[in-house]
Specification:
Radius of gyration: 17 Å
CATH topology: Collagenase (Catalytic Domain)
Helix content: 25-40%
Shape: globular
Bound molecules: zinc ion
Strand order of the largest sheet: 2-1-3-5-4
């Protein structure tokens, strides 16, 4: 039995008792130099992208008072690197925008986003874009990577779709332009795993590490 099936089974049991939206706590840690506009845009993109899933997101600082609160699910989201619009490091070779930790086949609720790689991908094909990238555009891109990884955590799988926010790779266009959303299949998958509806799309994923670009 796969890990994702175990988690979804639990969520189905919970459905009988919880008709309210699932409360998902996101414990957000960002570098101190991160502009508030970037954080606000990240939060807005994440909430808007997950709006149709029946999830109610509550943001908390990564190191704070959340220890005394209870949520249906909790995700630790850590941003690393230069999380402000600036010239990216051209010597970077990593293609990994974000990672969700997997241990012994178990998807853990720990997500990391590499701001430096996100910046570099946003620059690709345009050497000057970072000089003019508004903080809200950068934050929106970070939010898209966050939703991709949060989907892995909440569905306890490494499943990808052919398009939308859950496809396996992101390009500069995906990060910079509008119109990238969760597919209907991804929405239904999340709703099911959080006890919000019946399963309409089967998880077909396998447990494996992955990277995006
Ligand atoms: Zn992925």
């Amino acid at each position: 039995m796969s890990v994702s099936r175990v988690v979804c089974l639990v969520a189905t049991v919970l459905q009988a008792f919880a008709a309210e939206p699932a409360r998902v706590g996101i414990l957000l840690t960002v570098p101190p130099s991160t502009p508030e506009a970037v954080v606000e845009a990240l939060r807005a993109e994440t909430e808007e992208s997950l709006r149709m899933t029946g999830i109610h997101i509550e943001w908390r600082p990564g190191h704070g008072q959340a220890a005394n609160e209870t949520f249906d699910r909790v995700v630790s989201l850590v941003l690393t690197g230069p999380c402000r619009p600036t010239r990216s490091d051209r010597n970077r070779t990593s293609h990994t925008l974000g990672i969700t930790h997997i241990s012994d086949g178990l998807v853990l609720p720990f997500v990391e986003i590499d701001c430096g790689t996100v910046l570099r991908v946003m620059e690709s094909g345009n050497a000057h874009i970072s000089l003019f990238t508004p903080p809200n555009v950068f934050g929106r891109a970070l939010g898209r990577v966050a939703v991709h990884e949060i989907h892995h955590v909440l569905t306890a799988s490494s499943i990808h779709d052919n398009d939308g926010l859950t496809k396996a790779t992101f390009t500069r266009t995906d990060l910079t332009l509008g119109g990238l959303h969760l597919t209907d299949a991804a929405v239904q998958r999340l709703r099911h795993c959080l006890g919000q509806t019946d399963l309409e799309t089967q998880n077909r994923g396998q447990q494996r590490a992955h990277s995006e670009e």
